[in-house]
Here is the input.
Amino acid sequence: MELMKIDTEFITLGQLLKMSNCISSGGMAKWYLEEHTVYVNGEVDRRRGKKLYDGDIVTIPGAGKFKISASSDGQSDVH
Here is the structure.
């Protein structure tokens, strides 16, 4: 499982797809979610605007499993 550190209260599923290099631009999120199954905390979710908070786990078959982690020092390791 890969840790995705964020320095905000939440990120969206579309942002996570871009951060994990599943898509190259935010505009591709809708297409990606229509064509691929993505799980948020074990349940299928196709909403690119789905808010992901500290502790949420996102599974993207073929790409990996990611845990959202709020950065304690205010800095994000992933851009």
Summary: The CA atoms of residues 19 and 79 lie 6 Å apart. The radius of gyration is 12 Å. The mean pLDDT is 89.
